[in-house]
Amino acid sequence: MRRILLSLTLLLFLPSSALALRQSSFSRQQQGLTVSTRTVRYQISGDTSAALREQISQLGVLDKSTGVRYGGFTNWYYHWHINYRVSSGKCRLTQAEIHLDLKYTLPQWSPPSSASADLVSSWNSFLKALRGHENGHGTLAITGGRKLLNKLRGLAPSSSCSALTAAARRTFVRENERIKTIEAAYDTRTDHGATQGATLP
Going by C-beta distance under 8 Å and a sequence separation of 6 or more, which residues neighbour residue 198? Predict the structure, then answer.
């Protein structure tokens, strides 16, 4: 499952707190698109599949739009910045940059001695599939960021810099809607990761 939060030129969305036991992060940059990635984990416990499923249903990330909790979740935040200058009576874009913050939230389970080997194996398979599903959301966000960057860089000169900024903002919103449609289709196609193996028996 995914959640998209966005930042416009002058508007910053700060990520909300999470039930994080452990956090890891890294960043990379490609031609104007900087991607910072971090993973947070929430602890669950139990020694049966039913107990683990119940823990996830209680402690998983809540999608406030649906009221459903999911075992894994991907939040992403775009921050964009443009520079421009006036020449020959037109405001022209000189630079566009996007920073993408990706946050993956996943469950963490430390098997107790009472857990069976079959349960441990099932958990490992589930977690691998869940991580793969969430990485799919991340890939869509990165691809969307690249397309958004190209759209911003392709903006035509405007009669004023306020008009150019407004055009950039409209482009941002339009691309966001397009990406959300792709994201929804991905979740529908994979049943939120179930068809990719992200289920506990």
Answer: 71, 72, 126, 129, 130, 132, 133, 192
Low-confidence residues in the chain, pLDDT < 50: 2-22, 26-27
CA 32 vs CA 4, 151, 157: distances in Å: 20, 13, 20
Alpha helices (runs of H) in 36-108, residue ranges in sequence order: 49-59
Instruction: Give the pLDDT of residue 28.
Output: 52
Q: Which two tokens stand for residue 150?
A: 């190209």
Contacts of residue 101, defined as CB under 8 A and 6 or more positions apart, other chains included, come to 15, 36, 38, 75, 76, 77, 79
Burial of 146 per CB tally in 10 Å (0-12, 13-18, 19+) = middle
Amino acid type, 139: T
> Which tens digit of pLDDT belongs to each residue from 65-103?
788 899 999 999 999 999 999 999 999 999 999 999 999
Axis crossing angle, helix 49-59 with helix 117-153, rounded to the nearest 10:
30
Q: For residue 107, give both structure tokens.
A: 């469950």
Q: Give, as one character, the DSSP assignment of residue 165.
A: H
CA distance 137 to 200: 21
- The secondary element (H helix, E strand) that includes residue 146 is helix 117-153
